[in-house]
Fold this protein.
Amino acid sequence: MSLGAKVFVGNLSDKVKESDIRDKFDKFGKILEISIKTPSRPPAFAFVQYEDLRDAQDAVREMNGTEMDGNTLRVEITKRGPRGEDPRDLEREDERRRRQHGTSYRISVSGLSSDTSWQDLKDFLREAGDVAHSEVDRRGYGTASFQTAEQMERAIRKLDDQELKGRRVRIREDRSRGRSRSRSRSRSRSPPRRRRRRSPSRSRSPPRRSRRSDSRSPPRRRRSRS
């Protein structure tokens, strides 16, 4: 088996099946294995293992940039294999690829409904141009990137304040990319509390008891006259 006969297929639908990928890629040569990965954040991706490097190269040449289930595929040769790999490593690898293929012409979208998916947002923005990447969260916010500045500006001009799934969304240029979000927090220590000195307790002298003498002086004796 030739080295490097493994193909990375990115930007797949999270509902893709192995049979769907096999139908698209089997025509280029013998496939040994297909491994689909669905990370915590879409899109999904897969590895297609060919027996021959030339078949893998044909698949990349013919399939890269084509559409599958409404998604534009990213297909390229990779040295990473589907066997024995940590899924977290695969997620980081896909994130690296997405950033590499992304652009600096990014927009932020607010006002999305809770059931809006990244695919819904991508389809909505395609009217403005080629959407390289899109993401949404559960709080009603999303981001997307375009290939050119003109496409980004067109999206802001034409699609801002338009309806997506029954909600009017607001679109702005995203200027947060590349800025460090980490902020150093200085903790101000409150000055140490001063201990309150207790005033020494005043010792009260016990009350004096007035003692009455019960002993009476003996009566004087009268001197008798002789």
